[in-house]
Design brief:
Number of domains: 2
CATH topology of the largest domain: D-amino Acid Aminotransferase, Chain A, domain 2
Helix content: 25-40%
Shape: globular
Number of strands: 16
CATH superfamily of the largest domain: D-amino Acid Aminotransferase, subunit A, domain 2
Structural class: alpha+beta
Distance between the termini: 37 Å
Radius of gyration: 19 Å
Number of helices: 8
CATH architecture of the largest domain: Alpha-Beta Barrel
Length: about 300
């Protein structure tokens, strides 16, 4: 089924202070963000009309902009309110929220101190990130060619658009070979993350996850760690060598879009979705589908 282009949809997008018709939410071709990647964003989910962990996402958006050297001209309260206003205007009980902030077109060049900082928020319906049948049996990941950069070479703690260039390249390459996604190593050769999700492995009843010292410590990642702790599951955050994957029994990825998704294969390594993976998948879905303050806690 053909996808509806994102520039030709009905509804409204919140942009620089208020709602405007979806098709009119445009930027100029000479916007600094397009040429120099001066752009940060968030990905959030709406469950039963509530945005899950909205304030955490908003605070990360503001911090991402600070790391890139600009200030979003709205407070966290104002951004939260705008996200809720956009969800209400679109009328979706379940969907995806994309706040994005960027430097505008007032200056063109590497230096753009006087550019206007823009903020937009879009909401749309978005089902499971991966095919539902494939997801239940575990998705297949390729090994990415590119690695996550060292923290002294890129602003790795910012959810910055430019950092996703190698993710798009890696995911396209994986899909062209029949995989659902790709797993990236870090600059040292340790296991890092998938192109848009964090990694978890199971061995002898314990949960092993890479140390997020050069990539995002995802909000979903932290949520799943809390759920695992509540179940009494041991959490081991450490550097993981790729060859260690031969000893792991289960694997899954986590992210706002991916939620909790089992993995059956990463390159030459295979895994079988088991009870810990299924339990945390179910616990996560039970948590996010609660409404009101419980879901936002």
């Amino acid at each position: 089924m053909a996808t509806i282009p994102f520039d030709d949809r009905d509804g409204s997008i919140w942009m620089n202070g208020g709602l405007r018709p979806w098709r009119d939410a445009n930027i100029h071709v000479l916007s600094h963000a397009l040429h120099y990647a001066s752009c940060v964003f968030e990905g959030e989910r709406v469950y039963a009309g509530e945005i899950f962990k909205l304030r955490e996402h908003t605070e990360r958006l503001i911090e991402s902009a600070r790391i890139l050297g600009f200030r979003i001209p709205y407070t966290a309260d104002e951004i939260d309110a705008a996200c809720k206003e956009t969800v209400a205007a679109q009328g979706f009980k379940d969907g995806y929220v994309r706040p994005v902030a960027w430097r505008g077109s007032e200056m063109m060049g590497v230096s753009a101190q006087a550019t206007k900082i823009n903020l937009a928020i879009a909401v749309w319906e978005w089902p499971s990130y991966f095919d539902p049948e494939e997801r239940l049996k575990g998705i297949r990941l390729d090994m990415a060619e590119y690695r996550r950069p060292a923290p002294d070479t890129a602003p790795c703690k910012s959810k910055a658009a430019g950092l996703y260039m190698i993710c798009t390249i890696s995911k396209h390459a994986a899909e062209n070979k029949g995989y659902a996604d790709a797993m990236m190593l870090d600059y040292r050769g340790y296991v890092a993350e998938a192109t848009g999700a964090n990694m978890f492995f199971v061995k002898d009843g314990a949960l092993h996850t890479p140390m997020p010292d050069c990539f995002l410590d995802g909000i979903t990642r932290r949520t799943v760690i809390d759920l695992a702790k509540a179940r009494g599951i041991e959490i081991i955050e450490r550097h993981i060598k790729p060859e260690e994957m031969s000893d792991f029994e289960q694997c899954f990825i986590t992210g706002t879009a991916a939620e909790v998704t089992p993995v059956s294969e990463i390159g030459p390594y295979t895994f079988t979705p088991g009870e810990i993976t299924k339990t945390l998948m179910n616990d996560y879905m039970a948590l996010v589908n609660r409404t009101g303050s419980v879901a936002a806690a």
